Amino acid sequence: MSPIAVNITGQEKPFPQMGDCEEVSARIVVMLGLESSPAYRRTDYLGKSLEISPLSENPLRREPPSAEEAVDNECRIKMCEWCHQILDFCGFQRETISIAMSYVDRYLSSERGQSVLFDRKAYQLLSITALYMAIKFVEPLELELSTLSELSRGAYSEHQFVEMERSILSTLEWRLTPITPIAVVQHLLSLLPNSTIRDAIYDASRYQIELCVSNYDIFAQHTPSEIALTSILNSCENVD
Predict the structure, then answer these.
(1) What is the spatial distance between Cα 224 and Cα 228, in angstroms, rounded to a whole number?
(2) In angstroms, rounded to a whole number, what is the distance separating the alpha carbons of residues 127 and 119?
(3) How far is it, in rounded angstroms, from Cα 53 to Cα 191?
């Protein structure tokens, strides 16, 4: 069986070109297996952070973090907005942010990522580095580390980005090809005949997925296939 087509290279045709329904079904089965595997599983790390004592996690801390220090969904929303601006300015595809946030969610689900939940600056560094890695992995061009430092208005040095990238790679064990909701949508809709209706369902589903990436309760707590199928069903209800 040929590798899974995820459409992460800006191709004009969004649907994978495959032989027949049997092959598409086989690919979907593989995707479902990957998204539920321990390597790509995510936890409710924001909920878990409420149960963790930051004093025990960080011996240098002398007092519990304030509400302004702890990471919450509002932090995610702001970082996703920033990422969208960068992607749009550079002409990159918006699916890249789904890959970047998968890195963020999986990193924060690990034991190493727990301390980041009590440091918003560290969370910002993690998110920017994850976007940099996703761009480098799937886009035809990559951002320079010096550009990242400039985009962060000098808040982080090139060395800090390099160290965070190493930490992410080590934590994720170099598994940098997550299943994305839009990839599942593409495979499911490729089972339908080519038509304007299918294209309309795809466009509506993609728009919903772009909106939900910044929502922790949706994107981080549900599998890509659940998000994909829900977006398709929602789209079908609104397609004439």
Answers:
(1) 6
(2) 12
(3) 49
DSSP class of residue 173 equals T
Query: Look-up: residue for tokens 């997925």?
Result: 209
Q: Is 159 exposed, middle or buried (0-12, 13-18, 19+ CB in 10 A)?
A: exposed
Q: Which residues contact 141 (CB under 8 A, 6 or more apart)?
A: 90, 135
Tell me the whole-structure pTM to 2 decimals.
Answer: 0.82
Per-residue model confidence (pLDDT) at position 20: 76
**Domains of the chain with bracketed CATH:** 23-37+179-238 (1.10.472.10), 42-172 (1.10.472.10)
Q: What's the pLDDT at 235?
A: 93
Low-confidence ranges of the chain (pLDDT < 70): 1-19, 48-68
pLDDT tens for 213-230 read: 999 999 999 999 999 999
Question: At 193, which amino acid appears?
Answer: P
> What is the maximal distance between C-alpha atoms in the chain?
62
Q: Residues 124-139, buried b or exposed e (16+ Cβ, 10 A)?
A: bbbbbbbbbbbbeebb
Give the N- to C-terminal CA distance of the chain in Å, as an integer.
36
Give the DSSP letter string of 22-73.
Answer: HHHHHHHHHHHHHHTSGGG----HHHHHTTS-HHHH-TT--SPPPTTTS--H
Type of residue at 23 = E
Supply φ then ψ for residue 119, to 5 degrees.
-145, 105
